Amino acid sequence: MTNPTDAAKPVRWLTFRDHDPDFLNLKYVYPVLSRRMQGISIGINLNTNNACNWACAYCQVPGLHRGDAPEVNLPLLEAELKGLLDNPALSPMIPPDTPETMRQIRDIAFSGNGEPTSSPQFVEAIEIARRQRDTHGLEIPLVLITNGSLMRRSEVQAGVKALAEAGGVVWFKVDRLLPASMKRINGISYKPEQIQGRLDIACSLAKVWLQTCWVAWDGQPPGAEDEGAYLEFVARNAHQIEGVHLYGLARPSLQPEAPHLTALNETQMTEWANKIRATGVKVQISI
Ligand code: SF4
User: Fold this and answer.
1) Which of 45, 68, 115 for mutating ligand 1's site (highest number of atoms within 8 Å of CB)?
2) What CATH number should be reported for the domain holding residue 105?
3) Domain that holds residue 200
4) Ligand 1 center–CA 162 separation, angstroms
């Protein structure tokens, strides 16, 4: 591999669009330049087999298939995270015109090629992230990006509790409430009360943001029924969530459903965000 400390000949620059977990040829840990975080987010990918228990139409994981995360080599995960936070390779990967404020590490996010809570070593991985963050004196949050589906498992709850004790936050995926719409967008369907039950558990353990992907299908934005069900759900949960992260199609889907999806324009996203805000919650948009 090219010497990553050679700023004149970088292997590859970090970009907003490049969220490839193989970025530095590490197995579990990867940096991304995050517009959302206005800086660098260190991603931890426990699903190195590209397996998820959902199959979202917009998913950017190549070769996505159903399943759980494999056994994690915890010493290797810790060594990779330590190596990246020690930082000899990271800063030269950032394009030279990147403002200084964007060069800071903003969070450590469990966000990989599948559902992170399906890892049999989810709790241990949280502990590693916490330990390395604290050892490096970083005052940054840990973030769990999850579809929330396994929140009833006691070991997942233990991991979320550990995350919260480490000052972490949960991003809980809720794209659609109507079962048929959820089936189309997420490849799985739950009854709204099942989603509510899992969200209640997450909110009892940690600070929770909803994360919602809002896109058109065959050129049609989500209809009035989808909007109504979503707004009713958010209003009902306004007292227990931190807010909503609303995002569109920042990067192309790598799934067979990709031809059906198109991004909504800025005006449509802003209007939708304002409707959500009217329920009394904060909304952050990434388009
Ligand atoms: S939950 Fe996440 S990883 Fe799983 S299919 Fe959906 S977008 Fe992909």
Assistant:
1) 115
2) 3.20.20.70
3) 29-286
4) 23
